[in-house]
Amino acid sequence: MLGPSYNHAMETPATFILVGIPGLPSSHVWLAVSLSITYVAALLGNSLIVTVIWTDSALQEPMYHLLCVLAAVDMAMASSVVPTMVSIFSSGHSSISFTACFTQMYFVHAATAMETGLLLAMAFDRYVAVCKPLHHKRILTPRVLWGMSVTIAVRAITFMTPLSWMVSQLPFCGSNVVLHSYCEHMAVATLACADPRPSCLYSLIGSSIIVGSDVAFIAASYILILQAVFRLSSKNAQLKALGTCGSHVGVMALYYLPGMASIHVAWLGTHAVPLHTQVLLADLYLIIPPTLNPIIYGLKTNQLRKRTWSLLMRCLLEHSNLGL
């Protein structure tokens, strides 16, 4: 136990050193190029989704409202880590100030908590659309959607604020080298000279409650959806109903499967899974879903695909007319 004689301000390092992916320095250049391309694709895809939904009056259904918020969260999540990663992979390492490190940690983990909440809200929207189609607009009013969005954000903030405070109050009197590509909670907490287990336990319990409850409610929603779909007499109606849910199931699998793999691999430790594998999984978990989400929705959602294509063609025609 640390006594009151510990001077937190004196022992806290001014900066942390992020090393990228330990054990894979030869791959850093290729990772920097790949991440840059992926990041640009994520920004363009999600920006396009937000622009189309925001400007098109025909896309004002609850599903598109939630998708717009999801795209904004994806951009924030990717932007909080990818520039740092590219800098590390380009130069071999990167320093980050104590305050910036904990700010990054806060935004990364808060964004992931918001994302799982949005996926639950989208599953609820699909449940109402399929199981109670006549009451869809009455149940999911703009006021209800706004309340759901605020609740999701408040839940993420409520979860992350104590965790960030617990880690930031730990004394860091030893190494300031973070064996990760960004300020991931456990990678930073293990550098402390005090016992980091309280914050790690809080993180494990809190994330298990949030993700576990969300996954349980999502599973229940889709069980009810499938029951309602298979009671439909028309085969075409069944296929249409399943098609409206296909993109959501794809996005959920893309988010939860890598996320669960990353969490369990981290808790197994380096004796079971090499450190570079753990870090690489955590990196891919933060950049792959934001990149692929717009593609999945663009391919699966017919109305959104048509509106997006129409917007792109209109922009191309305007650009060509200006060049004449």
TrEMBL record:
Give a GO cellular-component term: plasma membrane
How does this protein lie in the membrane? Multi-pass membrane protein
List the Gene Ontology MF annotations in alphabetical order.
Answer: G protein-coupled receptor activity; olfactory receptor activity
Keyword Transmembrane helix belongs to the record: yes
Query: May I ask which residue range the UniProt record assigns to the signal sequence?
Result: none
List, for all copies, the residue spans of the domain called G-protein coupled receptors family 1 profile. Answer: 45-297
- Kindly state which keywords UniProt assigns to this record, in alphabetical order: Cell membrane, Disulfide bond, G-protein coupled receptor, Glycoprotein, Membrane, Olfaction, Receptor, Sensory transduction, Transducer, Transmembrane, Transmembrane helix
Report the subcellular localization.
Cell membrane
Q: What PANTHER family is this protein classified in?
A: OLFACTORY RECEPTOR 52I1-RELATED, OLFACTORY RECEPTOR 56B1-RELATED
> What task does this protein carry out?
Putative odorant or sperm cell receptor.
Q: Which family does it belong to?
A: Belongs to the G-protein coupled receptor 1 family.
**Protein name per the record:** Olfactory receptor
Organism of this sequence: Sus scrofa
Q: Which gene encodes it?
A: LOC100738212
